């Protein structure tokens, strides 16, 4: 085995592009471990990203870059480890949930719940273990969107809930606990108590991500989550028009004041796609989400067009990520899910080591 230039190997591996994430391993915060002393050196890479669909291609690229820098063949392994990230204040992550991420909007009608369910499903398709908490107490919509209307969660001990499962993701909602057409006429303290119970008294099962579908606005539910529930971050959903972006800006600033990290902005209904000719037009204006993200110094995670199939499939309990997994809309959500995971991966972790770095070990 030739003498190894570990610095050259580090540079070569760190510069390898992570397919479909728009960054290299260094930018993704990879932990790179080089082992030598065996028949041939080995490079092991750990990433805090869901990698199910890109792992094989990434390993091939790393092997080629490392072999060229080392001057000999190199064994390669890539591991996805979604680490827990530091929540706001002195709160600690839930025992069975590494990262809770709130999906919020300043105003209603921007497609926040549709965005939340498709993001959860897209993250699951990328290889993550995902849950979805429907915290919109007054207007719970996830039971319908996930095809779970009429179902109720079990309680094995009379104190906690077992989440329901749909399309591979765990979910809980007040919509499972009240009759479908019954109005939820609760004052603020009852709402905050319900959200707390759904969060802390649900038996989540080793989740990488728990997305929280919030009600619109900056009221009791948002304050409860910001003060009592450990959030790794929040995503703001808006539509392109200025009035929606203006209200979304208020919501974003509220979370900042509460110490919750804003991971980015999603622009929903960014353009209208004609079902007859596929022409795309900005019915509600253009660039509102991009301007909001730029003004607030956070990334624009992506944009989703206004497509009739999104509404139809979601209303039917089979969102587009499931109904047409290889379709254009599912690809948009997949791209946004990857950018969300990347934005979170770049945040401080609970682990004490720094990213990226290279560790060199001699194997016996």
Verbal overview:
The chain has 364 residues and is an alpha/beta fold. It folds into 2 domains: 6-83 and 350-362, GMP Synthetase, Chain A, domain 3; 97-345, Rossmann fold (3-Layer(aba) Sandwich). 33% of the residues lie in helices and 21% in strands. The protein contains 11 helices and 16 strands. It has helices at residues 6-14, 55-70, 112-125, 142-145, 188-200, 220-228, 242-257, 288-296, 308-315, 320-323, 328-345; strands at 17-18, 23-24, 31-36, 42-47, 75-80, 97-104, 130-134, 164-166, 169-173, 207-213, 233-238, 262-267, 272-273, 280-281, 300-303, 357-362. The protein has an 8-stranded mixed sheet, with helices on both faces. Strands 5-4-3-16 form a 4-stranded mixed sheet, covered by helices on one side. Helix 2 (55-70) links the parallel strand 4 (42-47) and strand 5 (75-80). The longest helix is centred in the C-terminal third of the chain and has 18 residues, at 328-345. It is globular and about 75 Å long. The two termini are 15 Å apart.
Question: What keyword list fits this structure?
Answer:
single chain; 364 residues; alpha/beta; GMP Synthetase, Chain A, domain 3; Rossmann fold; four-stranded mixed beta sheet; 16 strands; 33% helix
Provide a count of the helices: 11
Overall CATH architecture of the largest domain:
3-Layer(aba) Sandwich
| Count of spatially separate domains | 2
Q: What amount of the residues lies in strands?
A: 15-25%
Query: Distance between the terminal alpha carbons, to the nearest Å?
Result: 15 Å
Radius of gyration over all CA atoms, rounded: 22 Å
- CATH-assigned fold name of the largest domain: Rossmann fold
The CATH class of the largest domain is identified as Alpha Beta
SSE topology string: HEEEEHEEHEHEEHEHEHEEEHEHHHE
Instruction: Describe the sheet with the most strands.
Output: 8 strands, mixed
What would you call the structural class?
A: alpha/beta
Helix content class:
25-40%
Strand runs, count? 16
Report the uncertain regions.
351-357
Form type: globular
């Amino acid at each position: 085995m030739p003498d190894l230039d570990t610095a050259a190997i580090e540079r070569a591996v760190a510069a390898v592009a992570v397919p479909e994430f728009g960054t290299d391993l260094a930018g993704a915060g990879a932990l790179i471990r080089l082992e030598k002393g065996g028949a041939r050196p080995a490079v092991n890479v750990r990433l805090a990203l869901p990698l199910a669909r890109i792992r094989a291609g990434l390993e091939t690229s790393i092997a080629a870059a490392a072999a060229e820098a080392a001057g000999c063949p190199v064994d390669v392994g890539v591991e996805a480890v979604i680490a827990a990230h530091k929540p706001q204040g002195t709160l600690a992550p839930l025992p069975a949930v590494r990262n809770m991420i709130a999906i919020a909007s300043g105003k209603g009608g921007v497609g926040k719940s549709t965005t939340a369910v498709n993001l959860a499903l897209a993250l699951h398709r990328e290889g993550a273990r995902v849950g979805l908490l429907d915290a919109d107490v007054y207007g719970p919509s996830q039971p319908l969107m996930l095809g779970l209307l009429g179902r109720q969660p079990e309680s094995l001990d009379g104190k906690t809930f077992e989440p329901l499962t749909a399309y591979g993701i765990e979910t809980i909602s007040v919509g499972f606990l009240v009759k479908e057409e019954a109005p939820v006429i609760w004052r603020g303290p009852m709402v905050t108590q319900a959200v707390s119970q759904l969060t802390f008294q649900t038996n989540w099962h080793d989740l990488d991500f728990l997305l929280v579908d919030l009600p619109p606005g900056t009221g009791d539910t948002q304050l409860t989550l910001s003060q009592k529930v450990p959030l790794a971050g929040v995503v703001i959903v808006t539509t392109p028009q200025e009035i929606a972006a203006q209200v979304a800006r208020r919501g974003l600033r509220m979370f900042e004041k509460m110490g919750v990290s804003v991971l980015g902005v999603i622009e929903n209904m960014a353009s209208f796609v004609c079902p007859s000719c596929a022409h795309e037009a900005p019915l509600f204006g253009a660039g509102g989400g991009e301007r909001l993200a730029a003004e607030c110094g956070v990334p624009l995670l992506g944009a989703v067009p206004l497509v009739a199939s999104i509404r139809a499939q979601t209303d039917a309990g089979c969102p587009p990520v499931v109904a047409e997994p290889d379709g254009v809309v599912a690809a948009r959500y997949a791209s946004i899910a990857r950018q969300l995971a990347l934005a979170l991966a770049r945040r401080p972790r609970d682990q004490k080591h720094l990213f990226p770095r290279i560790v060199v070990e001699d194997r016996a």
